[in-house]
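Work Package 3 (structural annotation) set out to generate three-dimensional models for the target panel prioritized at the project kickoff. During this period the team completed the workflow that converts sequence records into discrete structure tokens, so that structures can be stored uniformly alongside our sequence database. As a representative example, we reproduce one entry of 308 residues exactly as it appears in the project archive.
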Amino acid sequence: MSYELRNISFLFLLGSIMFCSCVQEFPLEIHDTEIPVVNCILTNDAVQTLSLTWSVKITDGYAFKEIKEARVTLFADSEHIGEFERTGYGNWQLRYQPVAGTNYRLSVQLPDGKELTATTTMPERNRFIADATNNHYPSKYFRQQTADNPCWIFVLSEQSLADNLMHPVPSSKATLMSDIGTDHPLIDRFNEHGNLLDLVPQSTTPAYAFYLRIQQSSLSDGEEIPFCLQTLYGDYAYIFFRTASREYDQYLKSSLLKMFMYRSEDDPIQWFDESKVYSNITNGTGIFAACNDSYIYFFGDLFRDVDN
């Protein structure tokens, strides 16, 4: 699916740090060298998108400088798939739908001869099915049948019928739920923040910020994991199950941890933050990764399993 939610990196570029009433001066080292930044998340869609810019220095504000001239090539194992074409400011596209289980390599050749490279694998999608017979506010029930890869679950909720069921996007109608709960036994608790009951009446699970990270596991044949999801569902809701490549999994988790570090405006620990967002780009920075989405669309007591 090609929509803004997949490229969440804009949430984490929080580089403006204010120092107020300091007793001691701290030396500020500013590097003049610009670093090429490549961001590309392969998705189970017919068009793949990529951004290509120069890194932003502390003296530059927030305006990204695009890289206009480059040769951006995608390979599947050793097979040449095609070249991305520049379609706008810092944006590139390639018409291609990745194949699950295939290893991909990205090559970005710059005019100065530098080559940026990275690899990832399109993951096989984990299987989830709805078990709506026991649904009751604020719980919706599911069963997970495979867990070969880590998976990220999130909810888009809205109060009116979607404009485009096949490509839901965050908008004035559809909202990414900021608090979501589950009793899934494989949940990663890194973004847990109290009890969901404080926010959602009748809920019984811990609260997690924005996403649920479900860790990978080996399930035997016929084994299933039953679990519930709880949040403030609107009349219409999309529940996404995003199976992640190893690179996407590390990138998203490290990005969220970075974002949480800057949530508290009066916490001085953020001034000395040395944590980094995961990157796998050789000779540059950014991310080349893959994710495989499916989602279930709920409207009232009914639902539709959308297999993309």
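The chain has two domains: 4-123+266-291, 128-243+292-306.
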